[in-house]
């Protein structure tokens, strides 16, 4: 099963936070917009989809969708906060022996990166 399809299923069953438009989108629609962690137009994929062994790309897919569908600065702020909450949920799943405090700290760095530097990605193809 693809990571994108798994993200959609996790959202539909309520394990991850996502908009209704993400939950109701077809796989083809999601695939057109969602590329995982990092900018779609980046020359190199330097943003890992895992934080110390835990795949957080599901949160990235939902965040991609929110950035594509958002229309206001408030939508961007909500998308970024949802991204952090979803990463924390994913980190909380599973084994007790994971370095969860370190993973949550790294998730917070991911959040700060999109909050502070995601403006161009959010507004790409839109007019402010």
Output the strand order for the largest sheet: 1-2
- Structural class, from helix and strand content? mainly alpha
Strand content: under 5%
Distance between the termini: 37 Å
CATH topology: Phospholipase A2
Stretches with pLDDT under 50, minimum 5 residues: none
Rg from alpha-carbon coordinates:
14 Å
The helix-strand sequence is HHHEEHHHH
Major sheet description:
2 strands, antiparallel
Number of strands: 2
Count of alpha and pi helical runs: 7
- Which of globular, elongated, flat, extended, rod-shaped describes the shape? globular
Number of domains: 1
Question: Share of helix among residues?
Answer: 55-70%
If you average the pLDDT, what whole number results? 92
CATH architecture: Up-down Bundle
**What is the CATH class designation?**
Mainly Alpha
Overall description:
The chain is mostly helical and 128 residues long. The protein has one domain (3-123): Phospholipase A2 (Up-down Bundle), CATH 1.20.90. The protein is 61% helix and 3% strand. The chain has seven helices and two strands, in the order αααββαααα. The chain has helices at residues 3-12, 20-24, 27-33, 57-69, 73-92, 100-117, 119-123, and strands at 50-51, 54-55. Strands 1-2 form a two-stranded antiparallel sheet. A hairpin with a 2-residue loop joins strand 1 and strand 2. Helix 4 runs antiparallel to helix 5 (73-92). The model has no long low-confidence stretch (mean pLDDT 92).
